[in-house]
Amino acid sequence: MKVLKIAGLVLALLVAALVAGVWMAWAPDRDPQSLTARWAQAPSQFITVDGMQAHVRDEGPRNDPTPIVLLHGTSASLHTWDGWVAALKDKHRVVRVDMPGFGLTGPTPDGNYTMPVYTHFVISMMDALGIKQAVIAGNSFGGYVAWKTTVDHPDRISKLVLVDAGGYDFKATSVPIGFKLAQISALAPLMSKLLPRSMIESSVRNVYGDPSKVTPALIDRYYELTLRAGNRQALVERFKQSKGGEFESQIKQITKPTLIIWGGQDHLIPPDNADRFQHDIAGSRLAVFDGLGHVPHEEDPAATAAAVQAFLDELH
Predict the structure, then answer these.
(1) How many Å is the maximal CA-CA distance in the chain?
(2) Integer Cα distance of 267 and 102 in angstroms
(3) CB–CB of 240/268 below 8 Å?
(4) Distance (Å, rounded) from C-alpha 78 to C-alpha 95?
(5) Angle, helices 231-241/216-226, rounded to nearest 10 degrees
(6) What's the pLDDT band for 246 if we cut at 50, 70, 90?
(7) Can you list the alpha helix ranges (DSSP code H) found in 26-106?
């Protein structure tokens, strides 16, 4: 009898722990309007692009003939470029956007997340803002979109900056747990309602060379914008529909002046990918930042933006 009582108590404790864990991780979708007060402050604006209300920030001198367009990576947002914008906007018009499926822009109308959708989105955004030609820069998946846009629309791109960019069929040495779970289709219904903040923290720390730089405010940003209605399902579909290596044979077609920036501690897209880009893009130059990870523009914006400014100055 005593054994049964102890077993019952243990079971009750386990159930209570499970309920508490689910309660703490419970995170249903958030309406985008509930997020705009914090994450779409001035100079944010929303413009219609390919049937979406795209979250855009457009800063710097309007007479700049070739603005800089910045494209973030998977599960990030335009805020990842805050440091670069601060460093570059006095001399350049700088445009950044929440890509389809991420940030406050949210999911595409038809659930299509193939590469042509993203490159078309970039050109449509440029058209909407009256930008005829731009310097385009992208990190990770945004880098993939940046170089593919350069290949598909060479007349619209003057220079290219790749920051730990995707595009090759690569083998990661460490993958954020959030990305791992998003690629398990069976978990999609569960992950659409549960999102432990600790999982976001682990994922962000995973892509930093120095995880001590990851602040609570940074985790808040990634966490809250992931909860934007539709973003979690969009992430699942993006991984299914846009694969690394799909267009890698086209990289050699790039003829625009290209700067490749890489974090030496990038374990998601390892630095040997930087060497491949440099080999395949004739005349490209490479800057490796030894202590930084997969998002060097966010981890050390001053040093990486200085490399971009030097690149642009050399080409005037």
Answers:
(1) 86
(2) 22
(3) no
(4) 9
(5) 80
(6) very high
(7) 32-39, 82-88
Listed residue (186, 166, 86) closest to 118, CA to CA: 166
pLDDT at 1: 56
Q: Render pLDDT for 16-35 as a digit per residue (tens, 0 to 9).
A: 333 334 435 778 999 999 99
Residue ranges of alpha helices (H) inside 63-137 are: 82-88, 115-128
Residue with tokens 């966010």: 298
* Of 33, 57, 28, 35, residue with least CA distance to 225: 35
- Give 265-301 as a DSSP string: T-SSS-THHHHHHHHHSTT-EEEEETT--S-HHHHSH
Tokens encoding 208: 């930093």
Distance CA 154, CA 133 (A): 9
* Contacts with 42 (C-beta within 8 Å, 6 or more apart), sequence order: none
Q: Are 93 and 67 in contact (CB under 8 A)?
A: yes
**Which structure tokens are listed for 164?**
């730990």
The pLDDT tens digits for 247-279 are: 999 999 999 999 999 999 999 999 999 999 999
How much is the pLDDT for 6?
A: 52
Residue-level pLDDT at 171: 85
Q: Which domains does the chain have, with CATH numbers?
A: 34-314 (3.40.50.1820)
248: three-class secondary structure by DSSP: helix
Please answer whether residues 107 and 230 qualify as being in contact, where contact means their C-beta atoms are separated by less than 8 angstroms: yes
Token pair 């009750």 in the structure block, residue = 12
Q: How far is Cα 76 from Cα 101, in angstroms, rounded to an integer?
A: 10
